[in-house]
Design brief:
This protein is of the alpha/beta class. It has 9 helices and 10 strands. The radius of gyration is 18 Å and the shape is globular. The protein starts with a strand and ends with a helix.
Length: 274
């Protein structure tokens, strides 16, 4: 079975954007007997070394580990925000060794304010080249993250092109099952489920994935209704994917994260064991 991690931002419904999410996730991961947690930069109180080392000590004491740290990106801002984003990322790269983290997840940027898709894509590509050059010097991995909400890369074709055009040993790829174009959850609507283009992008990108962000919405009680995980898991198995899976919960109903995440772990474990 692939190692499973909990994305601690999933506890936002209970704890807001605080490091209580991180501790709650670590405790749940330990209780469930899974590999560990993933975190987001917005959940950290500071990058002060003593604080980060103490946080790492608490998590390690529970017998779990931190996989990656995600960087928040303002998708509604024009690409003129990228230099500030790069500065924040460099600070994050410098801070992460105090947490024992060696990989950072970074999405693209929004196609907004009259920017063309091609112009935005080229600017995002340059962003990743700059980021990866810095990360390589620090011995860090950068996970390219497909993301919708009007951003790029958000299709299988765009992801493969970006991976092919950024030249760096630091670059890797995390496949987000709920953030390709065609996902019913990426824009906060359910409708009749995911569109075929979502699954086409997953099939296209699965062979390139080093990690999977497995998105759950649980709009109602029971198994996940918006994404066909039987199909997604078959695709991952066919691609011989053996990397870590990070479970991310974005509620679209009234099921709390403390109940949804254990259900998601059980559900995925059963599907991968079939």
């Amino acid at each position: 079975m692939n190692p499973i991690y909990l994305q601690t931002l999933s506890f936002h419904d209970i704890y807001g954007n605080t490091d209580e999410c991180i501790l709650a996730g670590a405790e749940m991961a330990a209780d469930l007997g899974i590999a560990g947690i993933d975190i987001e930069d917005r959940l950290l109180k500071s990058y002060e070394p003593a604080y980060l080392r103490e946080l790492a000590h608490q998590i390690e004491g529970l017998g779990v580990r931190i996989g990656y740290c995600g960087l928040i990106v303002p998708f509604n801002d024009p690409v003129s925000s990228i230099p500030g984003e790069i500065d924040r990322l460099k600070e994050l790269i410098n801070a992460m060794p105090h947490l024992g983290v060696d990989s950072i997840r970074v999405p693209g940027n929004g196609v907004v304010d009259g920017q063309s898709l091609e112009f935005t894509f080229d600017t995002v590509r340059a962003k990743f080249q700059t980021i990866c050059d810095y990360a390589a010097e620090a011995g860090m991995t950068i996970y390219l993250h497909n993301h919708n909400h009007g951003s790029t890369p958000s299709t299988g074709e765009q992801v493969l092109r970006m991976l092919g055009e950024v030249d760096s040993p630091a670059l890797s790829y995390v496949l987000d099952t709920g953030q390709f174009q065609g996902s019913p959850g990426a824009g906060g609507f359910g409708g009749n489920g995911a569109q075929p283009e979502l699954y086409e992008s997953i099939e296209m990108c699965a062979p390139k994935a080093s990690m999977v962000r497995s998105k759950f919405y649980f709009a109602a009680a029971g198994d996940e209704q918006w994404l066909d995980y039987s199909r997604i898991v078959r695709t991952l198995k066919n691609a011989d994917f053996t990397g870590p899976i990070s479970i991310v919960y974005e509620p679209r109903g009234d099921i709390l994260s403390k109940d949804a995440l254990p259900a998601a772990v059980r559900y995925l474990t059963e599907l991968f064991n079939e």
